[in-house]
Design goal:
The complex is a heterodimer of chains A (about 280) and B (about 160).
Chain A lengths: L8 H8 L4 E5 L2 E4 L10 E3 H23 L8 H20 L7 H17 L7 H12 L17 H33 L9 H40 L4 H35 L3
Antiparallel strand pairs in A: 1-2, 1-3
Helix pairs in contact in A: 1-7, 2-4, 3-4, 4-8, 6-7, 6-8, 7-8
Chain B lengths: L5 H130 L10 H10 L1
Classes of the chains: A mainly alpha (about 280), B mainly alpha (about 160).
């Protein structure tokens, strides 16, 4: 699926795996290549724009239903939205036994938002980047210098942001429910409740605690990044055979997309439920 | 693939979306769903109750029908009995009446017979006396022979 003869497989893959990043340099705002050494203060605008766009698709469509939600016979879209809400609500009720008005909306946001972002993976991988290239060309840039990654969940920054948000809530509620002492006690008094093993417990539990957000972020990122990479490899390496291969992989990936969104949501609920449990 | 400021932007966006959902999406949708659930539950309960009522009413109607039938047959039975009774009574009455009438008629006949007999006897006596007077007008003094005449009348 190379745009023209100059594009090698390697550069094609490279192109697809590079975010459209911006940063401020000495010569003003820099793009992708100028940002190679910009360090932390680089922004992936493609990830930001697509994720925020999809986030708004989520909140505005759901808000439009919520605003005129009738208790009578619902419309089709209201039914659809209510099915999702009910599904998430049921998952929360089954897993989370405390009383917290934040958990269910948080779970709903994570589920739908991640789902929407994952679905971007189904869009043929060259459509949006090529479109962006054409738009860039119209503004006088070399199309090969215009980068566009359309699946925000293949950006570790996004999945890590979600996981850190969940992590902060975990810490916050742990301390709020159990007190700072109770929270710390969970770190050093388990699993061996003998003072001379506290140091060992502390190392163990701290790693376990930190592993939660890290695994949350890496699981989603890894699954989607790998799937994206396989789409790219199919497109870049196997020529005409990519047509059935794309279909087969997309069909399989349709399973992965909601599954990963669901797992992220479910683990969030479980982690927050643990944070609320007082031993 | 490096960690950079995108993380901060994403965190802010995430927080905003969660806040928005919590404030403007979840409560309304949940309220609508719960209200409808309640409505449906109420409706189902009402229909169940109505079905039970119907069943009860049907049972009651059947019961009443049975009662009515029993009552009707009882009434018919009673009426028949009463009819027979009335017929019997009427027959008895008629028989009594007839007997009475017959007895009266017999009594009347008897009285008439006696009266006529008396009359006849008196007239025969008178006739006899008259006859005897005529025959023995001159020889017999009525007053002198009154005892004989009375005796004669007695014998008649």
């Amino acid at each position: 699926m190379a745009a023209n003869g100059e594009v090698t497989v390697q550069s094609y893959i490279q192109h697809h795996l590079t975010n459209a990043s911006v940063c401020s340099t000495e010569n003003g705002i820099g793009f992708v290549k100028e940002c190679a050494n910009a360090g932390f203060w680089t922004w992936h605008i493609d990830t930001l724009v697509w994720s925020i766009l999809l986030g708004f698709v989520f909140i505005l469509s759901f808000r439009s239903v919520a605003k005129k939600a009738t208790t009578g016979v619902p419309g089709k879209f209201q039914c659809f939205v209510e099915m999702i809400v009910e599904f998430v609500g049921q998952s929360v009720r089954d897993t989370f036994h405390g009383k917290n008005p934040l958990i269910a909306p948080l779970a709903l946001t994570i589920f739908v938002w991640v789902l929407l972002m994952n679905i971007m993976d189904i869009i043929p991988i060259d459509w949006l980047p090529m479109l962006a290239g054409q738009v860039g060309a119209a503004f006088g840039h070399d199309p090969h210098d215009v980068y566009m990654k359309v699946v925000p969940t293949t950006d570790l920054n996004l999945t890590l942001a979600l996981a850190l948000g969940v992590f902060m809530l975990m810490i916050y509620y742990s301390i709020k429910i159990k007190g700072i002492g109770g929270f710390l006690k969970e770190l050093y008094a388990h699993p061996f409740n003998t003072p001379w093993l506290y140091w060992f417990n502390f190392i163990l539990e701290t790693i376990a605690l930190l592993a939660k957000p890290l695994s949350l972020a890496l699981r989603l990122f890894g699954n989607l990044y790998a799937a994206e990479l396989i789409f790219i490899l199919i497109a870049g390496l196997i020529g005409l055979w990519q047509l059935p291969a794309h279909f087969i992989w997309a069909a399989f990936h349709i399973l992965v997309i909601p599954l990963q969104a669901f797992i992220f949501m479910m683990l969030t609920i479980v982690y927050l439920s643990l944070a609320h449990e007082d031993h | 693939m490096n960690i950079n400021a995108t993380l901060i932007g994403q965190s802010i966006a995430f927080a905003f979306f969660v806040w928005f959902t919590m404030k403007y999406v979840w409560p309304q949708l949940n309220a609508a769903i719960e209200d409808r659930q309640k409505k449906i539950a109420d409706g189902l309960e009402a229909s169940e109750r109505a079905a039970k009522d119907l069943e009860l009413a049907q049972a009651k109607a059947t019961e009443q029908l049975k009662d009515a039938k029993a009552q009707a047959s009882e009434i018919i039975e009673q009426a028949k009995k009463r009819e027979n009774q009335m017929i019997d009574e009427a027959a008895d009455k008629a028989r009594d009446e007839a007997a009475k009438i017959i007895a009266q008629a017999q009594a009347e006949t008897e009285a008439e017979k006696n009266r006529v007999k008396e009359e006849l006897r008196k007239q025969v006596a008178v006739l006899a006396v008259a006859g005897a007077e005529k025959i023995i007008e001159r020889s017999i003094d009525a007053s002198a022979h009154a005892d004989i005449l009375d005796k004669l009348v007695e014998e008649l």
